[in-house]
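Dear Dr. H.,

I hope your travels went smoothly. While you were away I took the liberty of generating a structure for the chain from your last submission, since the lab meeting agenda had it listed for discussion. I wanted you to have the full record in hand beforehand rather than looking at slides cold. The sequence, exactly as received, is reproduced here:
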Amino acid sequence: MFNFSYITALVLLLLAFLNLNKKGQRQFAIHGYAQGTDYSIKYFAEDSVVTKGAVDSILITIDSSMSLYKSYSLINQFNASENGTQLDPHFLKVMKKSFEIYRQTGGKFDPTVKPLVQAWGFGVRPVEEYPDSAKVKNILQCVGMDKLRLKAGFLQKKKPCIQVDLNGIAQGYSVDVVADYLKQKSIKAFVVEIGGELRMKGPKPDGTPLKIGIEGPADSAHTEPSIRHIVALNNGAITTSGNYRKFLQRGKGKIAHLIDPKTGYPLDNALISVTIYAKDAITADGYDNAVMAMDIKEALAFVKSKKGMEAYIIYHRIDGTVADTLTSGFKKLMIN
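The corresponding predicted structure, in token form, is as follows:
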């Protein structure tokens, strides 16, 4: 015969123990430098189960696969090859996602823009002059994911001049890999940030959601956006693509670092920045660049058509003033 008083007392004791464990969790922080930028990881646990050395090791492995700044990397081996190369698991996952986003965006996202990125001064090597129309037209013959074939893990070139640059998606993938590592360590609340790309899981041990700041429109067209909004969420990724921080000066004008793979020229449209929310960072990071290449109506319609994706967009009105807009789902994430 069960002693219900004893069982009740045992349950209460267990609940008290679980609450004690939650209260015993502390916030740990790791900061470092990788992939040409700063990274920051914050997580809650009873002990420091994740070390900086472990995170650095993960990011070094990914760099060895897809960093254009590592001469020995697999991506540089592919770019230097005549026909292509066999991909490692990291490179393969990112290329599969890249083909997906390329198709979904009608080619607005295209990693084969590497020769154009280099020509416009945003590549590994500095340039002395910008390309003229004839040069751009010539380079475009070596651009297009339709000139690549992925089969059984082998990435094949249809033209020897095809080269890829995965900087527009690999950082999001890196965030996901680190986030998955934390989850493998049974960490239930964390924020992983690499170069401004974020993946979060919550809530915090006290039950409150994780919060991050989102840049809103500047007071005028001549100043940069600043933190204007707070987003609270317990699961997902948020990434931002924009032209207002990374650019080159050309006389009185600016050359945006995002290159349109269709025209071969830097983007010159109304969008200033696009912040994407998605289930994982590789998705958000890959799509934010493509959405930047759209006009405001197209961008909103496109994001609304994607299940689980939301967007916050800063743009120039016709009169030059700065405004913002967002999807209804993103609005629900904002607490101010």
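Two observations you may find useful: Confidence is low (pLDDT under 50) at residues 1-21, 246-253. The longest helix spans residues 4-24.

With kind regards,
E. W.
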